[in-house]
Amino acid sequence: MNRVLLVLSLTGLLTACLDGGGGGGSSDGGTDSPAPATGLAALEEAGEIPKLDRSTDLTGPDVDQDNVRDDIATHIDQHYTNEAQRNAALQAARAMQEVFTVDLDDQVAVKEVNRQIARADHCIYLVFEEGNEVKPAAQVSRELEAMATNTKARLTRYLEFNKALDGSIWTTPRGNTCE
Known about the structure:
The protein is mainly alpha-helical. About 55% of the residues lie in helices and about 0% in strands. The model is unreliable at about 1-30 (pLDDT under 50).
């Protein structure tokens, strides 16, 4: 349920960005506000948000073919110096990447990808336990999901993946699910 709410929130945010945020003019009658792309670039340059690939390709660039989009891998390497935390974040990024390549008509494959996502998410909660010096597990999980679904096409595919899971039943993983 929380995942659906997050995805819906991201959809609204992404739609606002893609639609120009309501016309681009300022409400005080002064100069026009910057275009959304310019605003994003400024936030990226300031380090406020990660620099993410916005290509039309669902999977995005993966030069080293480690099944993690290069921009997400760079973000993980820069923000998680603890090896266990970095590995957990990479596991989650790899699992999310599968959403963009799985055959949505193959129910067994879709369930397997969902199992990988659940195991990776469980690993994040094991590794980013309360009181760590980086950030809470829930925040790490939400950020990685948001980074993976950063374009309209990727977000649409993620929604389609979740729809393909409709009626599925699964359990929360137990034990150490870290790879």
